[in-house]
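chain below, 238 aa
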Amino acid sequence: MNDADDVLLSVRAEARQLVAPDYAVLDGLLEHTAGSKAEAVGSITASLDRLTADLAALGGVPFGEATGRRPLTWSAYSSATHEESYHDKETGRLERTGQVTATVALQVTVRDLDTLDDLAGVLAAHQGLNVHGVMWHVDWDNLAWPQVRAAAIGAAFGKARDYAAALGAALRQVEHIADAGLLGGDTAPYQTGHAVAAGGFSARAGRSGTPALNPVPQELIATIEARFRTTEVSLPGT
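prediction:
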């Protein structure tokens, strides 16, 4: 049979799978206001020391190259101060209050998800800390990734078989299997494999009576493109 008699089928397929998250990342901000910059900075430094000591009591360590996958890590990655002001309704101008606010941005990563209740209790106990974001993540080497990628290839075979059957043909050989976008012809951005993350505090109470963190299942998505050659196709009327 000559390849000229074949049909080349190109398909895109994806597979999805829900898995438990591997870790959570909590973003927060420590904030203290005082009568002077020195006092505000001293207050925020003391608060950060207390918080990191409490995290250390749970096994937490500073985040670094050698500690990336430890059960609990933290990073105080930026700090700032600013003079407090308010909007004067009569003059329409911003007026200073004479107070200074100091802030420290903090990120806490927890991999031992059994400690979430204890961690939530520690964070809630620090009144100067506002946790404004919780995101759940799946590691790049999670054991579910090979499964979802294999399922995407299976879906591509199924779609190609459907197309071939509609043409009265059958699949003859695989030409290409590639990450989405690598076969050309489509400039739309596609992620070959990613996890859809969701986060937030749950409504249930933990052991300390504070809002608890419940792990949110993550959806792994693998998208691939494939090309197949079919057996000879006889078009109607030819």
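The longest strand covers residues 94-110. The radius of gyration is 28 Å.
thats it, cya
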